[in-house]
Amino acid sequence: MLASRKSVISGQKKETELMSTAEIVAPQLPYLRRYARALTGTQSAGDAYVVATLEALIADPGTLSSNADARLALFRIFSAIWNSLGVNERGEPVEPGAPAETRLNEIAPAPRQAFLLSCLEGFSEEESAHILQVDVDTIRELVDEAGRELAADIATDVMIIEDEPLIAMDLEAIVESLGHTVMGVARTRSEAVALAQSKRPGLVLADIQLADGSSGLDAVNDLLETFETPVIFITAYPERFLTGERPEPAFLIAKPFQPANVSAVISQALFFEQRAHRRREIRAHA
Fold first, then answer.
1. What is the pLDDT of residues 117-160, one digit of tens each?
2. Does residue 123 lie within any of the structural domains?
3. In CATH, what number is assigned to the domain containing residue 85?
4. Directed axis angle between helix 2-25 and helix 43-59, to 10°?
5. What is the pTM of this model?
6. E-assigned strands of the chain?
């Protein structure tokens, strides 16, 4: 009788653990499925790995200790399963000229994972390092590598709005190292508008406080009145960006910046711009 009662209690405890795990995991599943699809290239393939992740959790429900770290733990389990399979050791070849989303499948798995964790899922460098079980420096190197490989398909003309010559030179070097072309550097709002009239940029890197006291934010607003383009603000005054007015939301990097961070955000901005462009085309032909 005692053994039977212990068995019942053990079964109830197991059921409670599984219910608790399900409650913790459920809100995170859409994000994991999104990540899995981007990583594998198809929803069916991604879901197969998600199922394997859930099976691992059922086998050991104690892996998720609290809601606070549920997402990190879930992605870490998924990544451990993904990286344990030899078939995932290299990227798959794709057709030349394929969109950036497809081009991701050709990138080696480690840089691809780091890029997607950072740029698609919004994990910090420390969180991405925890998920992939590497250090932060490795994450930076992997994201930078992914950005360079993607640049071949998303190369564009970049306008830099920056009044400090040395900073402008650093940004030019970063942009060109990624395979993009710097179409010009503007030091004031009026110079930025004039430069854009000659050729529309595919990306804008803009400081906020400019040489003549004018605003890079105002310059960007002027540009966006006539055409759409992704914008990255690089500024020592991030609080001036948080105005609640257009062009928010946008990408923001605080000075002093790390070159690897700038490279990653450039690739991120262009990657999502291409995705948005493809969605607009699909809607237009629907």
1. 987 788 889 999 999 999 999 998 898 888 777 766 678 999 99
2. yes
3. 1.20.140.160
4. 150
5. 0.63
6. 157-161, 181-186, 203-206, 231-235, 251-254
